[in-house]
Write a structure and sequence with these properties.
Layout lengths: L2 H11 L11 H32 L11 H14 L1 H33 L1 H14 L8 H8 L3 H26 L2 H9 L4 H39 L4 H11 L2 H29 L7
Helix pairs in contact: 3-11, 4-5, 4-7, 4-9, 4-10, 6-7, 7-9, 8-9, 9-10, 9-11, 10-11
């Protein structure tokens, strides 16, 4: 028997190495997402249960921190009377109008500043200089200019949305690789086509980040604006409850604002996954 034949015989006699069962990547990813969803639900529920127990045992002062069951009971009472829904509708309407009023100019200006250096050089100091000003500090001036009507609340939301969107859009457009712009120019693309097919898609992850930040800031500012110069809205409900020392109602307003903020985050996250599918699996 030759040496090569002997080696072949030995290899055939050896047992095949054991292989670990392959885990389908999709199944593993699905189980991870399910676990994350469970955590997202269980964590706040656990905190509320701890809060309830500590309140029932007298560890925390329920005059200032009423137990969650009392807050939920007050929420049902406000819902039945219609007071809660009228205030929610007033705040969401102002938030919706102000959101688009701040979003559209911010997108256009951000893309233009990112594409054209002279415009960026002219406007960047204005944006950078006015951005650190506390937006709530502008409320007296806005009330002086626009009065106590609906316009002042909408303008507050628009200002809150404008800055995060324009800053993130400029950064996103500038982060697009120059070769994509060069390819578009070599194929004779017009400025509008460069704007639509290169700048916007390339900057979309940054744009969506700015939109999410702007929506959250707009929700904060609408509550502040309603505390000062409004007779409806969640901010007004919280402030009025403070004046009447209705602590449960104050917490109801805070809870509803938190729920609206979380719903906005979920909605914008779904939109972001649809517009930027390459980031959806992260």
């Amino acid at each position: 028997m030759s040496q090569n034949t002997a080696r072949s015989q030995v290899k055939e006699d050896l047992p095949a190495p054991a292989q670990a069962p392959a885990v389908p990547p999709k199944k593993k990813f699905t189980s991870t997402k399910a676990f994350e969803r469970s955590l997202a639900v269980l964590t706040p529920v656990a905190l509320l249960l701890i809060w309830e127990v500590l309140g029932r045992l007298g560890v925390i002062d329920t005059r200032f921190f009423p137990v969650p069951s009392a807050i939920v009971e007050q929420m049902f009472a406000l819902s039945e009377s219609g007071e809660l829904w009228s205030n929610v509708w007033a705040s969401t309407r102002r938030l919706f109008i102000g959101f688009w009023l701040g979003l559209v100019p911010a997108l256009i200006l951000g893309v233009v500043m990112g594409l054209y250096r002279p415009i960026r050089a002219a406007l960047q100091p204005l944006v950078s200089g006015t951005y650190p000003i506390p937006k709530s500090a502008l409320l007296p001036l806005i009330l002086l200019i626009f009065g106590l009507g609906e316009t002042s609340k909408v303008v507050m939301v628009a200002i809150g949305v404008f800055y995060p969107v324009v800053i993130n859009t400029v950064a996103g457009v500038m982060n697009v690789a120059p070769m994509y712009y060069d390819v578009a120019k070599n194929f004779g693309a017009s400025r509008w086509h460069v704007f639509k097919t290169v700048a916007i898609p390339g900057a979309m992850p940054n744009i969506m980040t700015g939109i999410e930040l702007g929506a959250g800031l707009g929700l904060i500012l609408i509550a502040i604006a309603e505390m000062v110069g409004a007779d409806s809205g969640l901010g007004y409900m919280i402030w009025n409850a403070w004046q009447l020392y209705s602590v449960e109602t104050m917490y109801v307003g805070l809870l509803v604002i938190a729920v609206i903020g979380y719903a906005l985050a979920l909605l914008l996250g779904a939109v972001s996954n649809r517009l930027t599918p390459w980031r959806a699996d992260r």
